[in-house]
Recover the amino acids of this structure.
């Protein structure tokens, strides 16, 4: 019998906790129509007395469900935050090719067109973007090509290729030459 | 959400609505973006490009729209010195050309489905494969061709070059 009393006592404590500060921020918001007060007596009774009373009974009886839900919800939020961090695009050493130089890349990056609709410069119309990338070279960095499949937070896949500046094995500024969505 | 105006592609002598935006890829890869002005909810990107496949290569041949400065946009706004045409060597992907009658209208992006899709696979601006996909048969009274059900026109700050 003492166990049953202890069970309901924890339920009561849970109910009081919810009543005082809410278990979750989303329940702390007061509906706008309650603030305005321009509602009928039945709705007032429902929101101010009936629902809190039923919630109180529910919390006293089924408080483990409530705490399990709170723990799960907080764990889920943490996991999603970590996943968001993990899915930020970054170039890892395994994505890198063999180190190269600006001269070598430029020698192979000419774009030819029989109609002359492209400038005779490395990477053609993207020459400006290439030059911007070269200008971002950190002190003592080496140039590497890279290629990888990037999975976004929304689980979309992109085939990405380009060049990256790396210093002591750490990749820094990069430039994409291909960013193609891959269909599963 | 509003269905978006299509780009235009001339392929094998015929003009098609094109469900791809190679210029967006150009900007994504760091190409010069002059800053376009949205003129309606059906044209958030702010421009319509006319493209052409010539000898299995994708070219931009015309560009219309307005820049945020109020000036009228042209190919030269993005590619100075290349007013006639631009080879889209940066673009790789599949271009969808919807054909036939409307099967299912979706008021967002290029999501509406039509009876057939001609798919052009482009690799670095070069056409490498074409595929015709059949999506089904539309009712007899279904609309023919690419359509947008509704849109809201946005005020445009036009620069008329000093004229009043």
């Amino acid at each position: 019998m003492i166990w049953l009393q202890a069970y309901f006592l924890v339920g009561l404590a849970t109910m009081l906790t919810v009543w005082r500060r809410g278990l979750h921020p989303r329940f702390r918001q007061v509906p706008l129509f309650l603030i305005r007060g321009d509602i009928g007596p039945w709705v007032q009774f429902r929101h101010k007395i009936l629902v809190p009373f039923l919630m109180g009974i529910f919390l006293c009886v089924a408080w483990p469900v409530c705490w399990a839900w709170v723990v799960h919800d907080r764990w889920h939020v943490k996991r999603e935050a970590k996943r968001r961090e993990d899915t930020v695009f970054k170039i890892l050493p395994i994505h890198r090719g063999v180190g190269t130089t600006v001269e070598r890349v430029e020698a192979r990056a000419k774009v030819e067109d029989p109609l002359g609709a492209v400038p005779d410069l490395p990477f053609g119309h993207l020459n400006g973007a290439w030059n911007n990338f070269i200008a971002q070279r950190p002190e003592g960095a080496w140039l590497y090509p890279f290629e990888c499949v990037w999975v976004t937070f929304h689980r979309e896949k992109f085939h990405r290729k380009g060049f990256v500046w790396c210093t002591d094995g750490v990749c820094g500024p990069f430039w994409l030459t291909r960013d193609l969505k891959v269909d599963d | 959400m509003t269905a978006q105006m299509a780009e235009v592609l001339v392929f094998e002598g015929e003009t098609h609505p094109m469900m791809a935006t190679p210029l967006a890829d150009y900007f994504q890869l760091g190409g010069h973006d002059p800053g376009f002005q949205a003129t309606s909810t059906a044209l958030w990107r702010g421009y319509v490009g006319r493209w052409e496949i010539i000898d299995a290569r994708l070219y931009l041949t015309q560009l219309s729209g307005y820049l945020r400065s109020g000036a009228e946009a042209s190919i030269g706004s993005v590619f100075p010195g290349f007013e006639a045409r631009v080879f889209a060597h940066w673009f790789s992907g599949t271009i969808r050309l919807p054909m036939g009658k409307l099967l299912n209208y979706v008021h967002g992006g290029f999501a509406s489905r039509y009876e057939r899709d001609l798919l052009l696979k482009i690799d670095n601006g070069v056409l490498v494969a074409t595929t015709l996909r059949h999506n089904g048969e539309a009712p007899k009274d279904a609309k023919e061709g690419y359509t947008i059900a509704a849109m809201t026109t946005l005020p445009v700050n036009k620069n008329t070059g000093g004229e009043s």
The longest strand of chain B covers residues 93-104. Chain B is about 5% helix and 40% strand. Residues 22-28 of chain B form the longest helix (7 residues).
